[in-house]
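Hey all, quick one. A colleague (J.T.) asked me to put the flavin-adenine dinucleotide job into the tracker so the inputs and the structure tokens live in one place instead of scattered across chat threads. No bug as far as I know, just bookkeeping. Sequence used:
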Amino acid sequence: MRVTDLIQKNEQTAFSFEILPPLKGTGIEKLCKDIEALKEFDPKYINITTHRSEYVYKDLGDGMFQRNRLRRRPGTVAVAAAIQNRYNITTVPHILCSGFTREETEYVLLDLQFLGITDLLVLRGDKAKHESSFTAEENGYVHAIELQEQINNFNKGIFVDGSEMKVTNTPFSYGVACYPEKHEESPNMDQDIYWLKKKVEAGAEYAVTQLFYDNQKYFEFVDKVKQAGINIPIIPGIKPFKRASQLSMIPKTFKVDLPDDLTQAVLNCDNDAAVQQVGVEWCIDQCRELMAHGVPSIHFYSIGAVDSIREVAKTIY
Ligand code: FAD
């Protein structure tokens, strides 16, 4: 079922979360434990992140190094299928430009189609660790909107080489990312919203935000987006604050500001157990205010935060 249907037919604010595929060579058990810890809150769907391959250098011992391509977290498609079958919950795999050629994307789409997984989150993806700025694969894409075009063509029964598909099944539907504090590479908010509008015109049915800790930024963003003529659900992406080290890590990694009240409360804590409690309370307040504003759904970034999300969800749902 499409994400927009799942969140709109819900009377109360829908709950969803995202998970990270396990490291190569480790099992799915830890992931299932996390899902079971959050299942009682009736997730309408579960997102599965995707991670590009990286280059690693093997020391050959003779002064030479061998360059190998390594995908540390493979298995988004398999994890999505395993979870959808095991829990009967819609899964939403992330599909990236980053690290994928058009042909590789086509095989991912074919596998998903065979498995009956038709909801996607379409993203450019992060740059490779060794890159200072994002570089597309040869025969890959620079922006999420180009990937949307490939998916739209696939839905029409057209492969990347222009040949036609004999059988077309349920078409893919998809959402995209958006940034209440602006994407780091965008020169200004208006430009970022301009490109979001293009992604909506190309077929995005909803957008999920980058995490944020200041609801005012989300409300202002939603107002601007509406003024620009964008009328899709803007799903807030939320992550409970957990450790003092995140005071510098979160702004650096996600290019978002932390409100001063939250920062001061964290600085007053003696240890990370106290920080976690501050984070849970902040998150509860954030979610309650978002719910009071009638957001259709709250999407939780659960990586490393399942225990906090349980505390939050127990209070707000
Ligand atoms: P784009 O839509 O391509 O936008 C990137 C920048 O280019 C923006 O500044 C935009 O304004 C601009 N822009 C867009 N289109 C054009 C155009 N046609 N011409 C010129 N400029 C343009 N990363 C991962 O690697 N794996 C994940 O699983 C993952 N999940 C995510 C989930 C969510 C909800 C979010 C918010 C982010 C996620 N990311 C993930 C990170 C994301 O891939 C990065 O933020 C990436 O830098 C941008 O992705 P995008 O899809 O917004 O890119």
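Adding what we noticed when we looked at it: Residues 49-51, 94, 96, 98, 123-126, 143-145, 176-177, 183, 185-186, 191-192, 195, 208, 210, 237 surround flavin-adenine dinucleotide (CB under 6 Å). The domain at 3-316 is CATH 3.20.20.220 (TIM Barrel).
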